[in-house]
From TrEMBL:
Family affiliation: Belongs to the cytochrome P450 family.
GO biological process entries: sterol metabolic process
Protein name listed in UniProt: Cytochrome P450
GO MF terms, alphabetically ordered: heme binding; iron ion binding; monooxygenase activity; oxidoreductase activity, acting on paired donors, with incorporation or reduction of molecular oxygen
Residues that coordinate or bind heme: 439
Gene3D superfamilies, alphabetized: Cytochrome P450
Domain of life: Eukaryota
Cofactors demanded by this protein: heme
Spans traversing the lipid bilayer: 12-36
Pfam families: p450
Annotated keywords: Heme, Iron, Membrane, Metal-binding, Monooxygenase, Oxidoreductase, Transmembrane, Transmembrane helix
Length: 503
């Protein structure tokens, strides 16, 4: 029969082809099956409207241009809730006040499971990260709460200040930098300091290596690494290696500490003294740096960017910090270094007596935090705005729905820390989460942000400049399609010069 001969020939050709050809063909066949099956889907009335495109065409924009893609979805379906397929996973996108309320409070919606598949920054490496997510996560969260109690947090302030001083000294008396490089680098240092140990954070070269590895985890997250994590793509292999190298750095630091027999005042010591198993300690350090460094670094970079473009808020922030120094520092401004004067301000004051810094941080996390919250429905099926979310489905809520809503925040893209809070709405601001999922690193992140901002606005003068070095006429705008840092599309340049106060 001609057909069977044709098939046989094709099979022989397939089997004798090289691995690359076999692999490509297998992927093409797999995607074709998905495409054909998705064509025949029909929606029941309580099923959210599906996107008018095939599954595979949703994948790349969901990962590469998420803000545009989700907005297009609302527009194309004409609905406030719609769904699409990411391979075999159903993803329901919700918006609006009642959906937001359900999203943040529904019992079955689980953050860890949602994050695991849809974010995929950390690959699952057997014996390194695979067991962590499920079994030990609650313990890691308890330890995170413990290292943010008053005493350890208070002890951390002068250390963060010293790290900031040391790194700011390397910037010289004046110059130009991109805050999304330099400020992020500084925050990476202070976050590693806060969450790990002296063995790592005292070693600038090691911190720099860690940063490269974490960048590799973040930027190496491609649609393929998330959706087909078992595929040995070059990006996936790089991620697995980076995870392994981070693991080695952390375990080496634990070993050195244990062998030294010296007790230090840091997070690692706290974990060791609590008698935690090594996997929990490694999970704490590896996982929380991922959760914390990028978010805090993004916010700090944007705070400095916004203050560089809004001198009136820069002045307000600087005078708030100056008056705290006057109240708490023992010596006069000129005599002592800025870092040691700031170290005299107690934790409680940083937390409760800085309304200007608080307003700046809040406004920055509103307008420049491109977060899409992700959950998985662990069951039973639930309804959001009369639309069904089946067990096992993923649900996502883009923060842009609330934070860039012109009804709640008039002229929403404008940075204005003085704007009034939106009234009569539930979860009108979710910059640190809402309902049953609140950020567990808020205390630490806010202290880092305040201390670094205080050092920068008093230690330097700065402004946003254009490519020629002149004061910029148009200010950088947050790019919500950049899910990592919200980095402005046309870059950002800050011109700075040291003030007369010694760092
Ligand atoms: C400016 C800095 C930060 C911002 C704006 C931020 C924001 C958030 C938000 C919005 C959520 C909730 C996500 C959701 O509902 O999908 C969250 C969760 C979380 N954050 Fe942060 N975060 C920051 C820094 C940190 C730091 C420094 C740490 C760790 C030290 C941290 C640890 C966590 C953890 C563990 C969760 C998950 C909570 C859970 O599983 O219920 N965050 N964060």
């Amino acid at each position: 029969m001609p057909y069977s001969i044709g098939l046989e020939a094709a099979a022989t050709a397939f089997l004798s082809a090289g691995f690359a050809t076999q692999f490509t063909l297998a992927v093409v066949v797999f995607l074709t099956i998905l495409l054909v099956t998705s064509t025949f889907q029909r929606d029941a009335p309580d099923v959210p409207t599906s996107l008018p495109c095939y599954s595979i065409f949703s994948i790349i924009p969901f990962f590469r241009r998420r803000y545009d893609f989700l907005n297009w979805g609302f527009h194309a379906t004409g609905q406030s809730i719609f769904q699409f397929q990411l391979l075999r996973n159903t993803v329901v996108v919700v918006s609006g006040e009642s959906a937001r309320q359900a999203f943040f409070t529904a019992r079955g919606l689980d953050l860890t499971e949602g994050f695991k598949i849809l974010s995929g920054a950390i690959p699952m490496v057997r014996g390194v990260t695979s067991d962590l997510q499920t079994k030990r996560i609650a313990l890691i969260h308890r330890r995170l709460a413990a290292v943010q109690r008053n005493t350890p947090l208070n002890d951390l302030i002068p250390i963060i200040l010293e790290d900031s001083r040391r790194m700011m000294e390397t910037w010289g008396a004046s110059g130009t930098f991109d805050p999304f490089d330099k400020i992020y680098e500084l925050v990476f240092q202070t976050t590693v300091r806060s969450l790990s140990c002296a063995e790592i954070s005292d070693d600038a070269a090691l911190v720099s290596r860690l940063k490269t590895l974490y960048d590799r985890l973040d930027t190496g997250t491609t649609p393929a690494t998330v959706l087909l994590p078992w595929l040995p793509t070059p990006a996936m292999i790089k991620k697995v290696w980076a995870t392994k190298e981070i693991y080695d750095i952390v375990t080496q630091a634990i070993k050195s500490r244990e062998e030294s027999g010296i007790s230090r005042n840091d997070s690692l010591q706290h974990l060791l003294d609590s008698g935690d198993e090594k996997l929990v300690i490694v999970g704490f350090i590896m996982g929380l740096i991922i959760a914390g460094a990028r978010a805090t670094g993004t916010t700090a970079s944007w705070v400095i960017t916004f203050l560089g473009g809004h001198p009136e808020w820069r002045v307000k922030a600087a005078s708030e910090v100056k008056s705290l120094i006057e109240s708490y520092s023992q010596s006069s401004m000129a005599a002592d270094s800025l870092s040691s004067q700031l170290a005299a301000i107690p934790l409680e004051v940083w937390e409760t007596k800085v309304p200007v810094l608080d307003a700046i941080i809040k406004e920055t996390t509103r307008v420049a935090q491109p977060h899409t919250a992700m959950r998985r429905n662990l069951g039973p099926p639930l309804y959001i705005d009369n639309k069904i979310i089946p067990t096992g489905a993923y649900v996502v809520y883009p923060f842009s729905d609330v934070h860039l809503d012109p009804e709640l925040y008039p002229d929403p893209w404008r940075f204005n820390p003085g704007r009034p809070e939106p009234k009569n709405t539930t979860f009108g601001y979710v910059g640190w989460g809402g309902g049953k999922t609140l950020c567990l690193g808020t205390r630490l992140a806010k202290i880092e942000l305040k201390v670094i901002t205080a050092m920068f606005v008093l230690g330097f003068e700065h402004r946003i400049v254009d490519k020629l070095g002149n004061t910029a006429t148009s200010l950088p705008t947050p790019n919500w399609n950049d899910i990592l840092m919200c980095r402005p599309q046309n870059g950002c340049s800050i011109k700075y010069a040291r003030s007369s106060i010694p760092l």
